[in-house]
Structure formats: structure tokens, C-alpha cells
Design a protein that fits this description.
2 domains, Rossmann fold, 14 helices, single chain, eight-stranded mixed β-sheet, 19 strands, binds flavin mononucleotide, alpha/beta
């Protein structure tokens, strides 16, 4: 799945001494699988949590854990610092974060960080009280101000047994953020992004609905990619999956989706509407379950709320719409873009086997008011999502 997307890139993974150190093993494995060359360094404390041997075997390099060891010629931190295209600290303990923020260098990991000018990425993991402590937050703020990428921890069961914020981000999320930094695409840092996803369900009676085949996968891929590129993301979806690192709001009907989007969009920078909102909804919702009879049944439908239109131009909000069309893709996209006064329109041809609604693949045409921005061929949805964010970035930066 990862392909060899990090082929030839040199990543130094620094492991500090927290319970989550064992999860760094999976990060190293995913990085090498993606083609990266990986060297591991460990704090002395970290070597008490996981054995360097495992990491040597997975990284195909000796592990640098003791900078006073004779074989490093006393220069192992400088060699690593110069070799790295990126340094990723997984997990980053409260103690190590404090040292990086202050510029301390009393073992190989902090020494290498101080000696390197390569981009730094930290994935904090600790007890919730340590994480939310004002000192830890100050140190993270100082690191962000120096352009370090912070992969926010998740919320869930902690090593102490209680639930809270401080769980190490999933290995996939860490690797996606490493990839974004290495591709120089951490460009949504500091932006608030709202994405809608999934098909709306318009109730007929308490057990039935009118809906469509949208799976919510395109919207989820867009939300996850935006998060990997540093955005603060809210995903309003009819297909909730509780993804880590994203604020998810679960909705059912178009009316609910509109209300949730209105709330989420206050103060947001970019809205991407990938949801398939039903154009029609049952005129009346039966209070009790409709009984089966032998007679045909007429369902009277009324035009539904127009979510795109209701979230009309909004100062400071870059609005991206999606159009699923079976014919005349480009003309339809251009017309909708103008009608709804959008900044960008992503049109996908449906009715083609193996792409679009409910598929893991998509092919899209991206249109701005000044014409076609990109034609994306049939690719996995997460790759299409990357190209859509590239187009959003290009159009936002050239201002229209
Ligand atoms: C069993 C155990 C688990 C620990 N887990 C964490 C942790 O998850 N996160 C953290 O920031 N510190 C944790 N600590 C504290 C660090 O190990 C301690 O601050 C240490 O000095 C970190 O050193 P390092 O940052 O050089 O690796 C833990 C300590 C122990 C004894």
C-alpha cells in the first residue's frame, strides 16, 4: 500500500524512554517498507524499554545508543546529524521534548537534534497530566515556532490504565506526517480545515431512509491527508470511523449535516464538501414504521436543503465542492462552480467501473474559475486526496 514513496530518503528515528517505545519498531518497519533508509538512535533510557537488536535488524544499521562508545569515534551524533534528511523522535518523552526546546545535549538523541539542521518531527507520548502540563505545552510551542512538526498524540487508554490524551499517534499517522515533511507538504500547519463526507440518509419512517452509494472514503482520505499536512481538521460525516487526530462529527441527514458544517466553519480556513448530499428527501417522515401491503407505494419527495448554496461565500473561507456526474463532466463542473460561487470544483465521472462512489479508487477533474487546474487519472483515493490538496494549495496561493 505504501509503495516505495520514501525511496532514497534518509530518516533518523530517535527513540526516547517511554512505554510507547515499542511502537517505534512498527514505525521503522513502515519507513523501510516505503523505501526510506533508516538509522535508529536511542536514549540510554529507551534501551531499557526496547532492545536495540530488534531495531538493528529492522533498520539494517547499527543502533546509535551510546555516544561514548569507542566505535563512533566520538562523532556519531555529528555523522547522524549530517546524514539525516529528517529526524523523527518516536516516541518523544516529556523529558526529551524539554531538552530539545531548551537546546540541551547530554546524550546522543538530544545531541544529534542540536547538531542537525534537518527538519525535526516529534511524536509525543506520555501520561495525560504530563502532556497537558503547562511546561510540556510551552516546550511544544517553542518547537513549533522553530518549525518542528508535532504529530499530536491520540486520546484513549494510557499505560496507567485510565483514559486521556497522550497515546502515541498510530504508526501510519506518524509515517504520513514524515512523508508530508519530506515532500515539503506540511503546508496546512496552523490552518483549520472542514471536510464533509458520506451520503446523507433522508428518513422515510423510523427504520428506512432514502440514500446513495457514497462510502465516505474520499472525504476521509481528504481529512487524513490534511491532518498529515498539519491542519486542524473537522470531518462531518455520515460514516463515522473515529479516526485519530481528527475531530469527527457524525450526522445523518442533509439538515443535520448543514447545521454541523455551519458550526464547524466558524473560524475555518478551508471547507471541502466531499459528501454526497441527497438532492431530494421524503416530503413527510412517518412517525411509525410503514406496513408492507400488496399495493404499490408512492413516495413523495421534495427538494432537499442545498448545503453548498446555504454555506455560500464566506469571507476568509476557501470553498471546494464535489460533483459526481455521469456525463459532460467538465461543462457540468464549470456550471456548478459558477452557480455556487466556489473557489474550486472537483468533478468525478461516475458510472465507470472500479472508481467513484464506494470504490477505493477515483479519477477527477479539478476546475477553478480560471479553468482546469488538474486532471487526476484513476488512482487510490488517498493519492487523489494528495493531488486535490496540492491543487487547493496552488489556487489559494495564487489567489483565485
Ligand atoms: C515505566 C516508565 C514508563 C515511562 N513512560 C513515559 C512515557 O510514556 N512518557 C514520558 O514522557 N516519560 C515516561 N517515563 C519517564 C521517562 O522514562 C523519564 O523522564 C526519562 O528520564 C526519559 O529519558 P529520555 O527522554 O532521555 O529517554 C517513564 C518512566 C518509567 C519508569
Amino acid at each position: 500500500m505504501m509503495q516505495r514513496r520514501l525511496q532514497g530518503r534518509r530518516v533518523v528515528v530517535g527513540i526516547s524512554g517511554g512505554i510507547a517505545a515499542y511502537k517505534a519498531i512498527e514505525v521503522v518497519r513502515l519507513l523501510t517498507e516505503a523505501g526510506a533508509e533508516v538509522q535508529v538512535m536511542m536514549t540510554p533510557e529507551a534501551t531499557r524499554f526496547v532492545a536495540p537488536l530488534t531495531l538493528e535488524a529492522l533498520s539494517y544499521h547499527p543502533v546509535a545508543a551510546d555516544w561514548l562508545a569507542p566505535q563512533g569515534a566520538g562523532e556519531s551524533h555529528i555523522t547522524l546529524a549530517e546524514w539525516a534528511d529528517l529526524i523523527a523522535i518516536v516516541p518523544a518523552t516529556a523529558n526529551s521534548l524539554a531538552k530539545f526546546a531548551l537546546g540541551l545535549a547530554d546524550e546522543i538523541v538530544s545531541g544529534t537534534v542540536l547538531a542537525s539542521r534537518a527538519p525535526l518531527l516529534v511524536a509525543p507520548a506520555m501520561n495525560d497530566l504530563m502532556y497537558t502540563h503547562v511546561k510540556t505545552q510551552d516546550h511544544l510551542k517553542a518547537l513549533r515556532a522553530r518549525h518542528a512538526a508535532v504529530v499530536e498524540p491520540g486520546t484513549g487508554r494510557l499505560a496507567s490504565g485510565k483514559s486521556g490524551v497522550g497515546r502515541l499517534a498510530t504508526p501510519e499517522r506518524i509515517v504520513a506526517a514524515i512523508e508530508a515533511v519530506l515532500q515539503d507538504r506540511r503546508n496546512l500547519e496552523g490552518l483549520r480545515v472542514v471536510v464533509s463526507a458520506g451520503g446523507t440518509r433522508e428518513p422515510v419512517d423510523p427504520v428506512r431512509y432514502v440514500g446513495n452509494f457514497s462510502s465516505g472514503k474520499m472525504g476521509r482520505a481528504l481529512a487524513e491527508t490534511a491532518a498529515a499536512r498539519g491542519a486542524d481538521v473537522t470531518l462531518v460525516t455520515t460514516v463515522p470511523t473515529n479516526p485519530e487526530g481528527i475531530n469527527e462529527v457524525a450526522v445523518t441527514s442533509a439538515t443535520e449535516m448543514l447545521a454541523a458544517l455551519k458550526t464547524a466553519c466558524s473560524g475555518a480556513d478551508i471547507l471541502v464538501m466531499a459528501a454526497a448530499v441527497a438532492d431530494y428527501a421524503p416530503d413527510k417522515v412517518a412517525a411509525a414504521k410503514l406496513r408492507r401491503t400488496d399495493q404499490p407505494m408512492d413516495l413523495h419527495l421534495r427538494p432537499n436543503v442545498d448545503v453548498l448554496k446555504s454555506l455560500g461565500p464566506h469571507r476568509g473561507l476557501f470553498r471546494v465542492g464535489f460533483a459526481a456526474e455521469t456525463e459532460d463532466l467538465r461543462a457540468q463542473a464549470q456550471q456548478k462552480l459558477a452557480e455556487k460561487q466556489l473557489d474550486l470544483m472537483v468533478a468525478n465521472q461516475i458510472g465507470v467501473d472500479g472508481q467513484g462512489l464506494a470504490s477505493d479508487f477515483n479519477a477527477v477533474t479539478i476546475v477553478s474559475p480560471s479553468g482546469v487546474v488538474a486532471e487526476v487519472p484513476r488512482l487510490p483515493k488517498w493519492e487523489v486526496a494528495g493531488q486535490i490538496w496540492d491543487a487547493i494549495d496552488a489556487v489559494r496561493n495564487r489567489g483565485g
